[in-house]
Structures are given as structure tokens and as C-alpha cells.
Write a structure and sequence with these properties.
Elements: H1 2-13, H2 16-19, E1 28-34, E2 46-53, E3 57-65, H3 73-79, E4 83-90, H4 91-101, E5 105-110, H5 114-128, E6 134-136, H6 146-156, H7 175-182, H8 187-196, H9 214-222, E7 233-240, H10 258-279, H11 284-309, H12 330-335, H13 342-364, H14 374-394
Antiparallel strand pairs: 1-2, 1-5, 2-3, 3-4, 4-6, 5-7
Amino acid sequence: MTVRIIISLILLLSGSVAMANGGADDIRVSLLTARAGADIYQLEGHTALRIQSPDRGDYVINWGLFDFEAPNFVYRFVKGETDYMAGAASTDRFLEMYRREGRAVVEQTLNLTPAEKMRVIELTDRNLLPANRVYRYNYVLDNCATRPLAVIEQAIGDTLSLGVASLPAEDVSTFRNAMRHYHVNYPWYQFGIDLALGSGIDRRISMREMSFAPEALEDMLSLAMRPDGVKLVDNTAVLVGAEGASPVLSPTPWFLTPMFWCNLVLVVSVGVSAAQIRRKSPGVAAKIFDTLFYLVMGLTGCVIIFLVVISVHEATSPNWLLLWLNPLCFIPVIAVWVKRMEKLLFSYQILNFASLITLLVLFCCGVQSPNAAFIPLIVADGVRALSCIIANRNA
């Protein structure tokens, strides 16, 4: 990280005056898009700005840096204090990193006037200053793709007319659906996102808002028009080809997906519930199942409560999954083993069943889009609630 800071400062201190006297004609500004990688933070690709200047050399400005060594990094990241940084590095070094990872890098050379190129350099210089380089990263509103787009538009002094991303219409309808498009081979990652992020990412979005995804931004810029009606992109070139096997994971086998395991939980739930209704009381198997099932749900509910109440992530609240996953889930964990808590358990399951019905209605109304694998879990919970209610009424 120290090396990046030094490089940034060197670039800032070099040659600004010389460019003001006509050297801007020889400057090239381009957008670099690195295609998706295998790590979860690489699934939408990555964007950076490249500047080629006779006075400064050939370098890249990158808004996707973060410091794992910062104090309390993990806690602050989970809490929503996601501080990212802008940094600069030589283009050769930047490209070599992606070449080693086997990820293609595409360059789109921008059609800018000399004055606009100078403005890009001025804006990026300001952005790289130690006082300005750290920013509060937002996954869909302020990230490594939206930042360079904002610089380009500030340099031009107007809003660009962006093209349409080459994605199915359903995949660009909401932020959540866009994420599902890029995470299609990472079902457990999307499962976690759908747990943690609430209804805020289910609103209808404009095509411009799809620019949060670097690969989508590349598509949109390829057809973008300047305010004067001229195409923004002069030329497109592949600087690094995808070498060897794709770094993106192949589809997850069906037996390792969340849907398979959640359906398995549903089957077990139906089995122990049928036995409970026949016996008019829960057996040991049902009690063990409820202990594990509701313990996991209660712990998950605590995480969601943290994200809703304490986290400053914009997209975590409101989260209607709290109707299903909340600390009240701990009641059955204890109550199934304590005879004196039967009435409390009965009351909880009546409330729980009503909450599950309410949640399903909200899903049907489009208030919040559930992960498909949530449905068998919700049904399993409903089956356990009904079996408890029936068994207690018949007792």
C-alpha cells in the first residue's frame, strides 16, 4: 500500500505545467475494464482510468483499493464503514496483475478534447491527494466503476447518453436481479446477499444505475454519446486476453446448491412433523431437529438485527426477513425440552405461523425478492409451526 501512495505522489508532482502549453493534444485517456475473476469481489469485473501523457508517462488510476491492515477492518467493513481508496500505478504493472490471473482487460479510448483531457488529469490529481483518496465505498452507488464515470462526465461538463447493457431485461430491472446475473455460479454467495440485504435493492432501477457493474459499464460506454452527439469511445482494444481456463467458477453441482440442502431440510421437517402429529407429542428426533433448526435461524436473525440496527450499509434496512429470522427463534431451542414452557412454545408458533404468512404475502407483492432457496426453509418452518399447534390442540 505504501508503494501505491508513493507512486501516486510522484505522479501528482510531475509535469503539470508543461502540459498546459499544448501538450494535451498528445494525451490519451481511456477506460480499462478487467473481466470477472473467481473471487467474490471480482464477479462484476473491475474498472480503472488509464492516462498516457508525454510528461507523466503511462499510468492507471484505480478506485478499488482497500487496506486489510487498517484497524478493525473486518468489523468496520461488516458495520458498513467500507473505506476504499484511490491509487495510481504504472499501466504495465496493472496489466501484469490481470495477466497472471488469466483475466482479460479491454481498453476503450475516449474521444475527449484537449481541455477535457486536462480536466481529467486535474480531477484525478485532486482525487489522489492523501486528504481525498479515501472514500466511503457503496456496492451499487459509489464504487470503482461509478467513480471514473463521474470523472469523465465532470471533465466533459455534462451527462453522457449511455448505451444499453447487453443483459436480459429482467437482469437489469433491480440491483438484486443484476447481482443474481453476475453471481449465477456462486449460489451460496447470492444466498448470503439475499439474507443480508433488504428491500432497498428491489426497487426498479434505470439503465444508468447499471453502471455500478464494470462489465455493464463497458457495454454502455461502447454506445455512449457525448452531449455534442459524437460517440464517446474512439477505439476499443483487448490489452490482455483471457489465457487458459476461465477464472470464473463453473456452475455449482446441484447437490451442493442452497436449493438442494434447503429442500433436504424441508423433507426432514415434514418427516418429524408427521411423526409428531401421529404421536400427539414431539419425539426426540423432532426435538433435536427443532433445536438445531431454530438455533441456526435465531443466530441468523441476530446477524440481520445487527445489519439493520447497527450497520450503516444503506441496503440492509428495511429487511422483511426479520418476520421470519429473529431472536425469538431461540424460544423453541429451549422450550421443546422444558415441559413448563409448552404454552409459551404454542403461543410462539401461532405468532410464527402468522408472521410467515405475512412474509409470503410481501414476497408475492414484490416488496422484497426472496432467494428461491428461502421458500423450502419457510415452508419447513411453517410445517413445524402447524405440527406444534395441532399436536398441542389434540393433547
